[in-house]
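Task 17 of the worksheet. Students: predict the tertiary structure of the chain below and write it out as structure tokens. Keep your answer in the requested format; marks are given for formatting as well as content.
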Amino acid sequence: MRALHFVAADTPEAQGALVTLRERYGDAGPESAEIVVALGGDGFMLQTLHDFLGKAKPIYGMHLGSVGFLMNEYRETDLVQRLAKAEAAQIHPLRMCASAAGTVTEGLAFNEVSLLRQTRQAAKLRVLVDGKARIRELICDGILISTPAGSTAYNLSAHGPILPIDAPLLALTPISAFRPRRWRGAIVPHKARTRFEILEADKRPVSAVADFFEVRDVEWVDVAEDRSVAMAMLFDAGHSLDERILAEQFVD
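Model answer:
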């Protein structure tokens, strides 16, 4: 049996499962464990990915939260056998560089980087891809750029495309775009460097969010995939992230 470390969201259900699973399988601790088992929802999975960045430990999630697209079914039994047969998906985050008041702050996002208006005024943004202005003035509530792993999260709610997990692509999706009225977003290469420039920033302030890390009153934001950072997520055999993403596109 591989050494396991269990972590759980701060809900009674997840905390109860944490006690049960530790009693049943033991807990090697965060340093000695070979696999981290996360108990909660997709938000807690994101938190766990960030908590274990750079530690080369695959994460296996079990669903005990509101949304569980990134999680496996919760069961107390057969965990050792499930882990032995689990399929791995390697994911890379986006690196956000956001300038506010002349200071550049960085953040990583495994799901998406989103720009959102802070007041009643719609945001005005210029969108550049690899240095070329693709949209000179986008009037909207916001815009996001999503990884394949995050394409079924906020991106999907904003009517963005679902991307296969191994696709070398990112989804660029507007949020309630007013002008250009017919622009529904774009798919860009994963190597692309996307810049968002905030127009009329004093009148129309905008915040930038990388997963759950926020920078307010930004002036510009650069986003690019960081291939130097990788995390492995484990999924039950026959229920890989590829299969989930494919199934999500054929819902009855």
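Marker's comment: The first strand starts at residue 4 and ends at 8. DSSP finds six helices and 17 strands in the chain.
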